Amino acid sequence: MATKSKLSVVEVKRPSREEAEAAISTLIRWIGENPEREGLKETPRRVVKAFEEYFEGYNMKAEDILGRTFREDMGGYNDPVLIRNIEVESRCEHHMAPFIGFAHVAYIPDGRILGLSKLARIVDMYARRMQVQERLTSQIANALQQFVKPKGVAVLIEAEHFCMKIRGVRKDHSKTITTRYLGAYKKDAGLRADFLQKIKGT
Asked: Are 28 and 40 in contact (CB under 8 A)?
């Protein structure tokens, strides 16, 4: 019988806030600093509080964000809806270094439309988790397809990864681009070309 090889997020026992702060103190000592000196006394508390903000996406659900759509008279509109330049700030799960950039998200309505802010919210929800850019791109597209059920979805993310900028290969100006196309966007090269042109503002 097959068994799960990995624990899911909900199965992991979360330590207390005090334990988390103690872990930060340990790291401070590990780098050779004194967590008791004045400038660092409050650092463990501040770091744990910051982590709550960085990773608040674990406390959100896609169905809560995308569960409400509107079946309204759109005046015959059935073309793509695109929001470009949605700011992305996430944390690489390999080094916990940030990666920062922009998401461009489009969908083709199939009788129902979504509040525009919801597209930015679903990007934020998945970005505020431990991530790799490839999975982040897929999660956004898959959630839109599942809960909004449009004719097609297109997601493109371009980001700079600080694990490449400030450590390792130290390539300061490199950008990573990932795409995910579903439905009509996957089948129609013309729609994909239109999406890419509109991202560029042409």
From this structure: yes
Instruction: Write the pLDDT tens digit of every residue in 131-164.
Output: 999 999 999 999 999 999 999 999 999 999 888 8
Question: Residues 30, 114: one domain?
Answer: no
Q: Do 139 and 185 lie in a common domain? A: yes
pTM score, whole prediction: 0.88
Give the CA radius of gyration of the chain: 20
Question: Mean per-residue pLDDT for 118-140?
Answer: 97
CATH of the domain at 187: 3.30.1130.10
Catalytic residues: 92-95, 133, 161, 163
Q: Number of folded domains in the chain?
A: 2
Please choose, from the candidates 178, 7, 173, 23, the residue with its C-alpha nearest in 3D space to the C-alpha of residue 96: 23
CA nearest to 88, candidates 152, 144, 136: 136
pLDDT digits (tens, 9 = 90+) for 83-95: 999 999 999 999 9
